[in-house]
Amino acid sequence: MTDATLHAGQFATLIIMAVALGMDAFSLGIGIGLKGIRLRDVLRLSSIIALFHVLMPLGGIYAGHFVSGLLGHVATMAAGVLLLLLGGHMIYSSLKGDSVQTMDYRSSIGTFLFAFSVSIDSFSVGVTLGMFEADILLTVLLFGFFGGLMSVLGLLLGRRVSENLGGYGEALGGTILLIFGLLFIF
Predict the structure, then answer these.
(1) How many CB atoms lie within 10 A of CB 57?
(2) Where does 72-101 have alpha helices with state H?
(3) Burial of 23 by CB count in 10 Å (0-12 exposed, 13-18 middle, 19+ buried)?
């Protein structure tokens, strides 16, 4: 396998993961958008979510480097199990109907908690990617871009569509992470 093929594969994997992680922001954004949101608030909230989608995986990547040094070859199995658990939790949460829609996203604390809650999955995936020595800059830029983009799309779409679409986005993201978890294990 050539070096260019390896980089293209890593890039495609990172994009798919970034979109999967952005599904959480997308689905919860739909819920908030359904209640009505001003465009200024869409931009503010999405920018903060994008920032958190940069910071959380960055912290996770550094934690993953540390764990990888401790675990050695067991790191691949641990990373796969982590993705399986995370994907399963996302699917379970979407089916159960867990949501943070009751918090006031317009307050500073509400905005912080909302952005943190939709970005926490990025930390766990960052740990996994840190174990595999993924390109840090590319990872955080893609995660930040797609986290912000997916939240904008969810918030704007929520202004226009029915509530039923929200849970499916998070379930789809969870399924993608489950598949990657299985690929890492097997």
Answers:
(1) 33
(2) 74-96
(3) buried
